[in-house]
Each structure stands twice: as structure tokens, then as C-alpha cells.
Amino acid sequence: MKYIIKIWITLTAFTLLFSACKKESVVSNSIIGKWELTNHNIISNGHLAYNLDYQKGKSYIYHFNLDNTYTLNDVDSILEHGSYKLDSSKFSFHCVIRPGYEKSGTFNSIISNTTLTFFNNGHDTNGEYTETFIYTRISH
């Protein structure tokens, strides 16, 4: 009987020990991971001026890393490799496309569990516009 009690106490202790451990989970609103472009649109003067839905597997993929670097790929090549900064709702990036040609910019951003949205408002000869890029998370 003492043997059974010892086994029960040991099993109970292990159960409590492992159930008390905090499991790590991926933050749902983190930009870290791979994101595929699903839609690009422009609203000009309140009207849809441009709209393109991309076919899954045939568009652009951002891969954002923990060290604040990223790559932008199309179906068969790396288009950009650079660094990024995300402050609240502002996303900034900088990359070298090739020697002598650098690119940088800032977008407004919204991140949810499965959707990343970059957008900017502007003004051109036609008036006010909003350009939006919508990405879907494909992995963490």
C-alpha cells in the first residue's frame, strides 16, 4: 500500500510541476513570420481606382525576422533584403536593391492574427487617394 501511495504522490507532483509551466505562444499581433500579398488597391477621391487580387502562391511574400530584418520574395527570387522598424502603427523599412540603389519608406500598418495591412494616404493631380496592400499570414 505504501508503494501505491508513493507512486500516486510522485505522479501528482509531476502533474502539478508540468501543468504550472508556462507554455510559450506566438503573439497573434506580431509581424514576425511570412506574409503573402493578397490584395493591392487604390481609392482615389472616394472611388475604387485600382484593385488587384493576387492568386495564392503567385504573389509577393514578406518574411519578417526577430532581428528586424526582412526579405521580400516573388515566386522565384529575392527582390529585397533589408531592415525594418515597427512603432505602434508605423512601419518603416530600408534596403539596398543593388549597389548605388537604396529604397526606404514608411507605411501606416495594422496587424491582426492573420492579416497585415499597409496603407498610405496622399495627394496627386487627381486629388486625395489611399493606397492599400493586404497580406495574409502564411506562417509564424
Question: What is this structure's SSE topology?
Answer:
Layout: H1 2-20, E1 33-44, E2 47-53, E3 61-64, E4 69-73, E5 78-87, E6 90-98, E7 101-111, E8 115-124, E9 127-139
Antiparallel strand pairs: 1-2, 1-3, 1-9, 3-4, 4-5, 5-6, 6-7, 7-8, 8-9
Folded structure, characterized:
The chain has one helix and nine strands. With 140 residues, it is mostly beta strands. It has one domain: Beta Barrel (Lipocalin). The protein has an eight-stranded antiparallel beta barrel with strand order 1-3-4-5-6-7-8-9. Strand 5 and strand 6 form a beta hairpin.
Search tags:
140 residues, mainly beta, Lipocalin, 8-stranded antiparallel barrel, 14% helix, globular, disordered N terminus
Mean pLDDT rating: 84
Query: What is the CATH topology descriptor?
Result: Lipocalin
Structural class: mainly beta
Q: How large is the share of residues in beta strands?
A: over 45%
Order of strands side by side in the largest beta sheet?
Answer: 1-3-4-5-6-7-8-9
CATH superfamily: Calycin beta-barrel core domain
CATH C-level class is Mainly Beta
Per CATH, which architecture? Beta Barrel
Which residue ranges are poorly predicted, with pLDDT under 50 across at least 5 consecutive positions?
3-26
Terminal CA distance reads 50 Å
Total of domains: 1
How big is the Rg?
23 Å
